[in-house]
Amino acid sequence: VKVEIDSFSGHKIYPSRGRIFVRGDSKIFRFSKPKHESMFKQRKNPRVIAWTQVYRRQHKKGVADQVQKKKTRKTVKSQRGYAGLSLADLAAKKAESPAARLAAREAAINKAKQEKKAAATKDGKPKAARPAGQASGPKVSKQQMKNAPGKGGR
Amino acid sequence: MLGLKATMTIIDNSGALLAECVNVLKRKTGHGLATVGDEIVVVVQKARPVSAVASQSATALKIRRGDVRRAVVVRTKKEVIRPDGRKIRFDDNAAVLINTKKELLATRINGVVSADLRMKGWGKIASIAPKVM
């Protein structure tokens, strides 16, 4: 059973109640009571007639009683591991203290320097093809160059 | 509630525009009133000018002012009660022309017609109509 609503007052219209008026432009108007139909015929504006639903909604009458349920949308931040760094490693890295991080960095730097030094002294013979503008002599590490007397840092 | 002297618009493309009721073919009485789905006899009061092509041909539909024809009422200003209790009324009175064999004279209908036509046995008119309320 479809319960219609009155076009003028907004009241509910149950079956076999009221009247339906089809205007020349095929627009349908439903009325639950002759009073509403009469008002419509007199071309009254429901927005200024105080007992109509249109008026009540416009002037926010009787709305304060209704509890407005506020729906808050919370975004949940989820941690994910990605290629190269699993979630466990990520967590471990986060948990590192700044001091630990610094120490690790230092160690890595030193390690790299050592490796570089070893590599430099191993193939001390200059590489045959060397782009112009580079060192003319044998490959010399920065430290050696710094320590070499009379030679400005490169 | 259309009786003698009631005017209505003709909403098909037969050429007639306005018609006046002359007789209601319901019973042998002379004071009957026609509602949606009733057959009436009308006099065409206003008609569109018959086109040159039509006036040449012998078979084309030629509706002129003063023609006495039959019609079926399709819309009334007086409300009609449906079996489920609803009451529907339209903004004007309207009819479509038919012949004595209950066939439509025109080919198209423009506008709304009442759904009561189907119940009274004029399903053909209802099916041609663009909108049925």
Structure overview:
The complex is a heterodimer of chains A (154) and B (133). Chain A is 35% helix and 8% strand. Chain A has 154 residues and is mainly alpha-helical. In chain A, the strands form two sheets. Chain A has a two-stranded antiparallel ribbon. A two-stranded antiparallel ribbon of chain A has the order 3-4. In chain A, a hairpin with a 6-residue loop joins strand 1 (4-5) and strand 2. The mean pLDDT of chain A is 81. Chain B has one domain: Ribosomal Protein L14, CATH 2.40.150. In chain B, strands 1-2-3-4-7 form a five-stranded mixed barrel. Chain B is globular. The model of chain B has no long low-confidence stretch (mean pLDDT 93). Chain A binds chain B through residues 15-24, 26, 28, and chain B through 75, 79, 84-92, 111-112, 131, 133. Strand 3 (19-22) of chain A pairs parallel with strand 6 of chain B.
Quick structural summary:
Helices cover 35% and strands 8% of the residues of chain A. Chain A is built from 5 helices and 4 strands. Chain A is rod-shaped, with a radius of gyration of 43 Å.
